[in-house]
Amino acid sequence: MSNEWLDKVIGIDLGFFGSAAAACEHTMPGVVPRVDLIQHTGGCEEMAQYAKSKNLSALLLERETKSVVCWGYKAESKYFQTKPKERSKFAYFANFKPDVLTKDAKLRSMKIRDSSGTHEMPVMELFVMLLNAIKETALTQVEMTRKYMFGEAYRPLDPKKILYVLTVPALWDDECVSPFSSVFHKTKQIKIQQLEYRNNERMWTKVWNA
């Protein structure tokens, strides 16, 4: 890690079924830092409370613009509650992590179909979209919490002083990491800052450009 002062670290864990995120603020030495779990964004009211610590790894897109409508349980709920004849304007993707993590470059570069089987997109493009959706949700919730805590003294965080950390399995090797690096550099959405091991788990650290 560099010696640069960071105001906030936001960690993201992307899973096959669900994804989670947590935010930790910078504190003075000897002060226990505040850690906030990033909550779900709706759509799972009937779930058990313990299951709400993770959100669904799913995306709902507008077909024409490819813009993200919503993600997580909210995406699942909105898509399947939409009348079948009106679903054609959406593309719903879920459980595509295995296609992202495969070591087979051909499979990883292929497009995958949405739940309707009539629309397809590159799996790595979907992966970046999901990470950015999680990032935006996390940052929004962090700022809402800070605004509530500080009141009139609230000031938005400096985007350059927020570190986003993506955890990856310890079994990943450079062969797995390399394609992600190239995708992030192409999109200019994420740049690699550090790659290291801690407590037998590999931490793949990235900083999203605001």
UniProtKB/TrEMBL annotation:
Gene3D superfamilies: 3.30.420.40. InterPro entries: ATPase_NBD (IPR043129). This is Uncharacterized protein.
